[in-house]
Amino acid sequence: MKKVTFTAEQTAIITTTNARAIVRACPGSGKTYTLCARVRRLVDLGVPPEFILVLCFSNAAVDELKQRLPDGVRVQTFHAYALSLVRNAASTKSRHPVLLTPTRSVQLLSSALKSCPNACSSVRQKAGITLRSLVETKGLAAFIRQCNGSDEVAARLVQDGKFSPYADVLAELRTIRGAYDKLVEKTGAVDYPGMLRRAQSLVQTAPLRYTHLFVDESQDMDAAQAQLLMGLAAQIQNLMVFGDPNQAVFGFIGGKARDMGDVMRDAVTMRLTRSFRLTHENAALANAIMEGGGSQIVGVRHGVTPSLVACDSVIAQEDKVVNLVEQLKANRPGESIAILTRTKAPVRAAEQALLAANVETDSMYSPRLPMHVDRVLDMLSLVQMCVFTAKAGRKPKKIWRTRRLQEVIGQPVRPVVVADCLRMLAKAARIPSFEGRYVMATRIYLRLARAAGDMPKNLASELGRWQATSRRFRTVAALRAHISELREQEPVVTSTIHGAKGREWDHVIVLNVTEGSIPFYREVDRNETDEERRLFYVAVTRPRKTLHLLQAPFAHAPSRKQHAEPSRFLTESVLETLS
């Protein structure tokens, strides 16, 4: 068996005799590896695996830890564990708590609105919103779900724009939310935000068999999760919490870099400062960005100095991205590449530029849908056949076209939908350009997918990404061959920085390191840029090898603002670490 070598810091955590410990782990420090080694040591020392509980913040983390931990160790998200507490408390009752579906949630909210006539009337007078209409009820349900029971998050959502019409009626909405929560509990159900709130009271008296509790990524805890952890800490003697306050970037949903000392006053603080991911040069940049806040990261090897390139325009930045990617693919084939941005718009433009340069991308915020793309190409073949039939002066056969429509979507189609699609096929037969026919094939397919209930949220945008490419071809076979060839490539990953947290690649390109983007203009207006600094820190700590920062002036359409100055985070000390 291969002998595993741990650093002194890791060994101290794995073998500690302290009952409670707060582990501050820098990016790439082997945090998960150390956590798993600590659990295995406890099992080797005789702690039964079923007496160990590990709490995480995502299903992906749960799946990873389950594969690496001994059988019997319980690994769950905070919400899943909270739901189990709620259900166990009701195990002796006739009705078992059921997790609400979105549809049922809207139904209960409609009932709650009826019980709050004064609040609804006030909302109508102040904001001009009739909450009891179906559209507004669904919108309010989404707002309540995203608030996650937090007034602070509610205020932030209103400020961020999407829910700005609620700005003057938050008090009324709080009343409605209270009525909704009571109704949910009365019906024996539980919604996603309510899991944690109800579990907080239950954990004080719930019989717990666990002797050891571990928490991963503790910096992502919101207030409700912190309260639940405090309840667990009161009953479980041995507690070890892993996290990095410098990576607390989910304040917009209530997650904050909380002082774990407030939750675990008797805990010792231990550190993992050596990053096995970062080079000395990338670590120096990360330390400079945080301006000495917290522990200094130590890299494990020398590498390439991170670069900063100032571009004259967004177009020039996209050209630079294409050049960088082509160079990396040519010189270092097979190595992973990621492009990160603060928001989705810049990375979408970069995706189109890369696609035009015959480079495939894999988006973390809008997953690829190859099956649907293939079906649209089948639909495009049908459009081409209709064009050929029309040019030949032949009368199209309705039965044959109807059968082909059903074959493309893979199931029977209602007559009204067939009629709509046949009309669109007739229009498509008169479109002269191949690109125009591709657009019409997409519209027909979207109509079928919507009717069939097989329509992912990003389907329209995923099919639309091939529109510009289609104009370079004249036949379906050629376009299909081109798409198949791109699928054989190792794709360039594209993501927002939030989505990239916890991930790593060989090479990372960060776009728009420009004031107004990093930090984001809205946070600048609020004078709340600390989290934006941490977000930049997360971005620059993703690469194993090279890091490229690009800065360009840009116009932000929603805010109608022009942004041209380099990011305020590009301080003199930061610039000294860049080439």
From TrEMBL:
Its EC number(s): 5.6.2.4
Top-level enzyme category: isomerase
The UvrD-like helicase ATP-binding domain, residue ranges: 4-279
Biological processes, Gene Ontology terms: recombinational repair
Binding site for ATP: A25, C26, P27, G28, S29, G30, K31, T32
Swiss-Prot/TrEMBL keywords: ATP-binding, DNA-binding, Helicase, Hydrolase, Isomerase, Nucleotide-binding
Gene Ontology terms for molecular function: 3'-5' DNA helicase activity; ATP binding; ATP hydrolysis activity; DNA binding
Entry annotated with the keyword Lipid biosynthesis: no
Known catalytic reactions: Couples ATP hydrolysis with the unwinding of duplex DNA by translocating in the 3'-5' direction; ATP + H2O = ADP + phosphate + H(+)
Keyword Ribonucleoprotein among UniProt keywords: no
Protein family membership: Belongs to the helicase family. UvrD subfamily.
Name the UniProt record assigns to this protein: DNA 3'-5' helicase
Species per Swiss-Prot/TrEMBL record: Paraburkholderia phenazinium
